[in-house]
Amino acid sequence: MKLTILGSQSPYNTTGHNCPGFFIQDNQTRLMLDCGSGSHSLLNYPNDLQNLSIILTHLHRDHYNDIYNLQYSSFVFHNQKRIEKPINIFLPSTPAKIYEDILSEQNSFAKYQIIDENSSFKIGNMNISFCPTDHPVETYSIKVQNGNRTIVYTSDSSFSAKNRLVEFAKGADLLICESSLLKEHGFPEINSHLTSEQAGIIAKEAGVKGLILNHFWPEEPVQKYVDEAKKVFQNVIPAIEGLTINIPSIEKELDERS
Ligand SMILES: [Zn+2]
Ligand SMILES: [Zn+2]
Predict the structure, then answer these.
(1) Per residue in 139-191, pLDDT tens?
(2) CA of 60 to the centre of ligand 1 (A)
(3) How many angstroms is it from 34 CA to the middle of ligand 1?
(4) CATH of the domain spanning 2-253, picked from 3.90.79.10, 3.60.15.10, 3.20.10.10, 3.10.490.10
(5) What's the 84 CA to ligand 2 centre distance in angstroms?
(6) CA-to-CA separations, 222 to 10, 41, 153, 214, 242, in angstroms, rounded
């Protein structure tokens, strides 16, 4: 498994920085977790549309805006006979208006499947499962297991879901955790997002090997997030667009960068 980071910030993209998106490749199987604004721009077209599955963790714009670009690209490349199989899009069914809007897109070469907390399926050799988070809309953390390697991506969550997230991420090789907030922002302890320190606490209690922070405010220096998380968990790096990590050698790779 090879992980490429497509987006690190929210709520909007800026030059060189996109909203959340993560691309996992395992042989010829491709999996994209979220497609926030700008994240599709790091894909290699049309190749990355081959055997591509996309999982949307929730229907907030900073996590799904680029699904329309991917749908339209799949339509065009299919018409040109440059991709053979439809892209697979997995998504929650609420908010219903947004779900229906995505599925009503005519210029698309895609298949759709609803996810919920009981969903569990295989994409290539990767076993995929879900854990509901606490967020204003239906939202899921995703676990990707391949052989003895595991990646968990929290998506957006309040710290009120901490115990569930710790259990879900137990022993993972890599935790990709949202850290929208800094303690200095002064938000109350329970919010619809995590602080960087809270991301560190989840990583520590889950006993993961490495932590990648993401979902940064564009105006804040990324180092502030890393410094805050490091007070509780050492093996942490920030999400950086284009960064690729080979999961079999993840301890070594994170050690070198953190
Ligand atoms: Zn959200
Ligand atoms: Zn978000």
Answers:
(1) 999 999 999 999 999 999 999 999 999 999 999 999 999 999 999 988 766 68
(2) 5
(3) 11
(4) 3.60.15.10
(5) 32
(6) 12, 22, 19, 9, 16
